[in-house]
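== Sequence entry ==
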Amino acid sequence: MPVEKFLGGISHFQKHVYPKHQDLFEKLALGQRPEALFITCADSRVDPCLLTQTEPGELFICRVIGNIVPPYPDAVGGVSATIEYAVGVLEVPMVIVCGHTDCGVMKGALNPEALADYPNVTAWLRYAEVEHQDLLAHTEHNVIAQLKNLRTHPTVSARLAEGDLALHGWVYHIGPGTVTAYDEASKTFQPLG
């Protein structure tokens, strides 16, 4: 795919989209106050803003393969820094960990020999707990595991103790366009909407 497609998109944005939302962009140029940290997979089929119908400035987004949150202080790096900044500095009121169906990384966690030539991916997958051979069940379990890992981060645990941070676990079902959410009481994923 030639870069011209992306350049055409930028041109369209500048000529047609920006003028309709100029006030919003001028306000956002002065700072941000996102309503949630949205941790999701880097998969190209997952578009958090399209899925949640949010505008620029509403979501602070962390995209990483497998929507994996390494436990603190195991893998201090981009994901941990993003969590610390969103929860500690921006003081988002909620964090959403969103997995999705047909995740290649979850397939890789179930069949690690397929990723033998990719040492960084293999190392990253040590944070994805494999308990189910069924891909959907594995995806759901991974979301729950990442919520558990999220609680190990000092900024998250402090805000949870203060009672002013909510954690949510979702699975986006790409084909039907639906989302299920983890219900702590029943320990099951229930349809949203």
